[in-house]
Write a structure and sequence with these properties.
There is one protein chain. About 15% of the residues lie in helices and about 35% in strands. By secondary structure, it is α+β, with helices and mostly antiparallel strands. The strands form 9 sheets. Strands 21-22-23-24-25-26-27-28-30-31-33-34-37-38-39 form a 15-stranded antiparallel β-sheet. Strands 4-5-3-8-10-11-12 form a 7-stranded parallel β-sheet, with helices on both faces. Strands 2-1-9 form a 3-stranded antiparallel β-sheet, with no helix packed on it. A hairpin with a 5-residue loop joins strand 35 and strand 36. The protein starts with a strand and ends with a strand.
Length: about 775
C-alpha cells in the first residue's frame, strides 16, 4: 500500500489517501509513438489587464507578470492542457467553453468528468478560467482543458491509483495535449508504467508539470522527482509553492535533485473557480503546490503560442525560456531550494526575444548566417519556384540558451518573396507621375529631362525624406551628333531601357501601353537606373549599328538603400524597311554583369547573392506595316545566366539558367479619329525554362551541437507562365495635349500557376509645351 495525495496545503483541503497499485491499461512501452503536437492558435488582440477585476482577483497572475504575454495577444488559444485530476465542474460558467469534448474518465470509461472532490475545478481555474468579466481568469484563459478524470471513490473517499495515472498520461498524450498538469503526488518509490508514460509524453513534445509536494521536505515527491531524470530534463517540470512575497512557502517541498527542471510559483491564497458555484462571481481560495503547478502549465501554454517555431523545432527551448527568465531566488543561480527561481512570464519573453533575434543558420561550410538578416527577393524569372521547395520547411536555425544550443524552426520559405514587377497592380497604382521636358540645343544636340512628382510615393521604401522637394530629378539625357553619320547619347540617372532601347516600332509604342519593357526589353530592365553612353553609326541609308555601355544599380525593392551595381554592354544592328511607316528590325546582343544580384534576385544571409551573375542575351524586335494603318510588333529574347559560384549560402551550384521572353502586338492608326492609335500587346515576361541548384539546409542538431545538413538537387523553373495582355488607346485632344488610356490583364501573375488573375486600368495625360 502506498500513500498518495492531491497536493493541497495541509489543514485546508488535504486528502491523504491509500492507493492500491492498479495496472489497468497497457504498458507505455507497448504503445505506438505518439503523434506530434498540433500548432497553437494565432495570437489574439492585445489585452491590457491594468485595472481589470478578473486579473487582480488572483494576484498570482500579477506576480508572474503574465500581462507581458497578454499585451502581445497571447491567451493560450489552440494549446491543449490536460488536467489529470479528480474531474471538473463541467457546467461552471468560467470553464464550460474551454473544456475539450474529448475529456474522459479513465476509471469508468465514460465521459462523466464531474469533480469528485472540488480539487480539479480549483486547479482548472488557475490554468484556463475564461476572461469574461466574471470571477477571475486563468493564466491561459483561452487554452483548451482536456480533463482526464482519474478518481476511484468509495464511501465518500477518493484516491488515485498509479496504473490509472499511467493510463491517464497516455490518454492525454494520444489526444495531443501540449501540457499535462498533475497536481498530485505521494511518498512512493515510483511505478514503471507511469514512468514510461511520462517519458512517452515528453518524447511526443508534451510538458508534464508536477506539484513538488507539501511536506516541507528537501526533495519533491513522486512523480515530481522525475524532473531530476536527465532524459526528461526540460519536459518534466517540478513546481514548488511561493508566498506573495516571493519566498518559498513554509509547507512546500524544495526542488532538491530536480533543481535544474524546477522553479516556484504562487501557491498561497490563490483565488480560483469553485466547484458547484451557481455564478462565476463566486470564487474560492486555495493554497498548496497543487495551485503553483497550474501557473506554470498556463505559462507554458502562453509561451507555446507566442513562440510556435521554437516549440515545433525543440519543445525544451520553451521551458528554457521559462527557466532562464525566472527571477533568481535564494542562492545565486540554480539552487536546490528554489531551482531556477520564481516564475516570470516577462522574463521568459525577454530571454526568448533575445535568443531568437540572435538566431543563426548553420551553413555547410561550417560558418553561419544571421536568421534575422536572411531574405531573398527572388528573381522574377523564377516565379515562386524557390519558396515552394519542401526542404526549406525542414530547415532549422540555432538559438542559444543557458543550457546550450537549441534548434529553431527557420521558416526559410517565408524569407523568400517574389520581386514586385512593373506589371504588378501595386506597382502601377503607386507609380510615379512623370513629367518630361525637352529642348533642342542647336542643330546637333538636344536635351531631355524627366522629373517625378513625389506625392504618390508615400509608402515606397525608397521615399525621399519629408523635407525633400516635392519634385526630384528622375533622369537626364543629352543627345548630339559627331558628323553626319554618328550620333552620341549620354544618359544620367536614367532607366536602362530608355538609354539602350533605340528607335524602333517597339520603342515608338511605349507611350501607348502602360509598360512594355517587361516583355520587350526584359534583360536590359535588370540593369536598373544609372548612367550610360551610346554611339550610333549609320551604314548606308537604312542600316545602323550601335554600341552602348551602361553602369547602374538595380534596387532591391524590399530593402531600402540596398541594391546591386550592374554593368551592361550591348551591340545592336537595326534596319528600316522603306519609309518612316515601313518596317523595322533590330538585333541586340549584350552582356549584363550583376555584382551582388542574380538575374534580379537580391539576397542576404543564408540566401546571399553576393557571388553575382553574368547574363548573355539576344533580343530581336521590330515591326512591320500590313496596310490600312495597321502595324504588327514583335519581340523575342533568349538569355543564358551564369549564377556565380556561391559557397556561403544554402543555394549553390546553379550552373546555367536559361530563360526567355516574348511579346506580340498590333497598333492601328486613325481608328476613331484622325491621329489616334489603338493597340493590343500580348507577352510573357522573362521566365526561366531551365534552372536548377543544390539546396543544402540544416535540419537537426546532433548531440554534440553540430548541425546536420541535408542536400538535394532542386528544379527551380516556375510551374506557371505569366501572360500579360494590354489594350491601349491614345489621341490628341488639342495641340500639345495627348490623352492615353489602358486596360491590363495578367494571367498567372508572377509565373505562379495558382495566382489569381489581375486586372487594372488607367488614364495618362501628356502635355507638351
Amino acid at each position: 500500500m502506498f500513500s498518495f495525495s492531491e497536493l493541497c496545503r495541509p489543514g485546508l483541503a488535504t486528502f491523504l489517501l491509500s492507493a492500491t497499485l492498479v495496472t489497468a491499461g497497457c504498458s507505455a512501452d507497448g504503445l505506438a509513438p505518439a503523434a506530434p503536437r498540433p500548432a497553437p492558435g494565432p495570437l489574439g488582440a492585445p489585452y491590457n489587464p491594468a485595472g481589470n477585476a478578473e486579473f487582480t482577483r488572483n494576484d498570482g497572475i500579477d506576480v508572474i507578470n503574465a500581462e507581458a504575454a497578454y499585451l502581445r495577444g497571447a491567451n493560450g488559444e489552440g494549446v491543449i492542457v490536460a488536467l489529470i485530476d479528480f474531474g471538473i465542474d463541467a457546467d461552471h460558467p468560467d470553464l464550460v467553453d474551454n473544456i475539450s469534448a474529448s475529456s474522459f474518465d479513465v476509471v469508468s470509461g465514460t465521459g462523466d468528468i464531474a469533480d469528485a472532490t472540488g480539487h480539479g475545478t480549483k486547479v482548472a481555474g488557475v490554468i484556463a478560467a475564461e476572461r469574461n468579466g466574471l470571477g477571475t481568469h486563468g493564466v491561459a484563459y483561452e487554452a483548451t482543458l482536456l480533463v482526464v478524470k482519474t478518481a476511484r471513490c468509495s464511501g465518500g473517499v477518493c484516491h488515485f491509483d498509479l496504473g490509472d495515472l499511467a493510463t491517464a498520461v497516455n490518454y492525454a498524450t494520444d489526444h495531443l495535449a501540449h501540457v499535462i498538469n498533475m497536481s498530485l503526488g505521494g511518498d512512493v518509490p515510483g511505478y514503471q508504467d507511469l514512468n514510461a508514460a511520462v517519458q512517452r509524453a515528453a518524447d511526443a513534445g508534451a510538458f508534464v508539470v508536477l506539484a513538488a509536494g507539501n511536506s516541507n521536505d528537501p526533495e519533491p515527491v513522486y512523480p515530481a522527482n522525475l524532473a531530476a531524470d536527465p532524459s526528461l530534463a526540460g519536459m518534466v517540470v517540478a513546481v514548488g509553492a511561493a508566498t506573495d512575497s516571493g519566498t518559498i512557502a513554509s509547507f512546500s517541498n524544495d526542488c532538491g535533485a530536480a533543481m535544474n527542471s524546477c522553479l516556484i510559483a504562487p501557491g498561497v491564497g490563490i483565488a480560483t473557480t469553485q466547484n458547484g458555484a451557481s455564478s462565476a462571481t463566486q470564487t474560492t481560495s486555495a493554497s498548496g503546490t497543487s495551485f503553483a503547478a497550474p501557473h506554470v502549465s498556463g505559462t507554458l501554454a502562453l509561451l507555446i503560442q507566442l513562440y510556435p517555431d521554437a516549440y515545433a523545432a525543440d519543445p525544451r527551448s520553451i521551458s528554457m525560456f521559462m527557466f532562464d527568465g525566472a527571477r533568481d531566488m535564494g542562492a545565486a543561480g540554480v539552487d536546490p531550494v528554489y531551482g531556477h527561481g520564481m516564475l516570470d512570464v516577462a522574463g521568459a519573453i525577454d530571454v526568448a526575444d533575445a535568443a531568437i533575434a540572435a538566431a543563426t543558420v548553420p551553413l555547410s561550410t561550417g560558418t553561419s548566417a544571421s536568421l534575422s538578416g536572411t531574405s531573398l527577393t527572388a528573381a522574377p524569372a523564377l516565379g515562386n519556384a524557390l519558396s515552394g521547395l519542401s526542404l526549406l520547411d525542414d530547415a532549422i536555425a540555432v538559438i542559444r540558451l543557458s543550457d546550450g544550443a537549441h534548434p529553431y524552426r527557420a521558416r526559410l520559405a517565408d524569407s523568400i518573396v517574389s520581386a514586385p514587377r512593373g506589371l504588378s497592380l501595386d506597382a502601377l497604382i503607386a507609380a510615379d507621375t512623370i513629367r518630361t521636358l525637352g529642348q533642342k540645343l542647336g542643330d546637333r544636340m538636344s536635351l531631355s529631362m524627366a522629373m517625378a512628382d513625389d506625392d504618390m510615393r508615400a509608402d515606397a521604401p525608397w521615399r525621399a525624406e519629408a523635407d525633400a522637394p516635392r519634385a526630384e530629378v528622375y533622369g537626364l539625357q543629352l543627345a548630339g551628333s559627331l558628323g553626319d553619320a554618328t550620333g552620341v547619347r549620354l544618359g544620367i540617372d536614367v532607366a536602362a531601357p530608355a538609354q539602350l532601347g533605340g528607335t524602333t516600332a517597339v520603342s515608338r509604342a511605349r507611350t501607348l501601353f502602360a509598360t512594355m519593357d517587361e516583355t520587350m526589353s526584359p534583360v536590359i530592365l535588370l540593369a536598373g537606373r544609372g548612367n550610360g553612353l551610346s554611339f550610333d553609326r549609320s551604314i548606308g541609308e537604312a542600316t545602323s549599328v550601335s554600341l552602348a555601355l551602361f553602369e547602374g544599380e538595380s534596387a532591391d525593392p524590399l530593402a531600402a538603400d540596398a541594391g546591386s551595381a550592374t554593368t551592361l554592354g550591348q551591340a545592336s544592328v537595326s534596319h528600316d524597311f522603306g519609309s518612316a511607316d515601313g518596317g523595322t528590325l533590330r538585333l541586340d546582343v549584350g552582356l549584363l554583369d550583376e555584382e551582388a544580384a542574380q538575374l534580379g534576385s537580391h539576397g542576404s544571409g543564408a540566401f546571399t547573392t553576393n557571388s553575382g551573375a553574368s547574363t548573355q542575351y539576344m533580343t530581336v524586335h521590330g515591326g512591320v506595316p500590313v496596310g490600312w494603318g495597321i502595324e504588327l510588333l514583335g519581340s523575342a529574347t533568349v538569355a543564358s545566366t551564369d549564377m556565380g559560384n556561391a559557397t556561403d549560402g544554402v543555394l549553390s551550384d546553379w550552373g546555367t539558367v536559361r530563360s526567355n521572353a516574348f511579346g506580340i502586338g498590333v497598333v492601328a492608326r486613325d481608328v476613331m479619329r484622325a491621329g489616334d492609335r489603338l493597340g493590343l500587346l500580348v507577352g510573357q515576361p522573362l521566365r526561366a525554362v531551365s534552372a536548377g541548384a543544390t539546396l543544402t539546409v540544416p535540419v537537426a542538431l546532433s548531440e554534440d551541437g553540430r548541425a546536420v545538413q541535408r542536400s538535394e538537387r532542386v528544379d527551380v523553373t516556375p510551374r506557371g507562365r505569366e501572360i500579360d495582355l494590354q489594350l491601349g488607346y491614345e489621341q490628341m485632344l488639342a495641340p500639345g495635349l495627348e490623352v492615353s488610356s489602358w486596360l491590363m490583364l495578367q494571367l498567372e501573375p508572377g509565373h505562379d500557376a495558382d495566382a489569381d488573375a489581375g486586372v487594372a486600368a488607367g488614364v495618362r495625360v501628356n502635355l507638351a509645351f
